[in-house]
Design goal:
By secondary structure, this protein is an all-alpha fold. It contains 8 helices and no strands. The radius of gyration is 21 Å and the shape is flat.
Amino acid sequence: TSLVNFASISSIDRKERQTYWAASMAFGLLTFAIAVLVLMQDRSQRCLDPFHFTKAKDGYVEGATLMFCVLWWIVGTSYITRAGGIAYVATNIYFSSWLALFSSVYTLNEWSASKDILSIAELTSISSTLKSWWVLCVSSLVVFGTCIDLHVQLGSDEIDDTAFGVAMSITSFVVSFFFILVHYDFIPRCEEGTWFELSSSFFLVIIWTV
């Protein structure tokens, strides 16, 4: 995905997106280089005595690298797919940016599970609806960031829709984060699986439908 991303960006006319071109291409280029070096060492079995990537520091070098890749692609995806960003020149760029982020998160999750530290499954297995609240919470943050970015770029006479999007995402984030805390028993006075949670879910369905 990193290769697809930076190759797609590099094929765009530099003059067309000169503001974003070099910075956008750097995200895919760096993680592609990291992945190639790791794969080359693993396949060739060279330099394993002085340094083994997956075993160095009991595997925590690999974990730190994966954490870096996740943070790197959070920034990269936000930058590349921002309103008016270079991602909208070609769909390959848009989808490969998100896929690179998801791949980094997935690989970090697999590493963390193998080290018995913490995995997404463990984090969200407390109840059947907790996964959905987490998805809604993260999605609300993405919508919020996108609306704020667009709000800044648009003129004062075109900001009504973005203001509505900001309000919707804040409401959705607050409600979802509240129930995440409820499921983790940080708010003992409120229990999960009650009519309050159900009615809140219906409320969010209605406002997002509107």
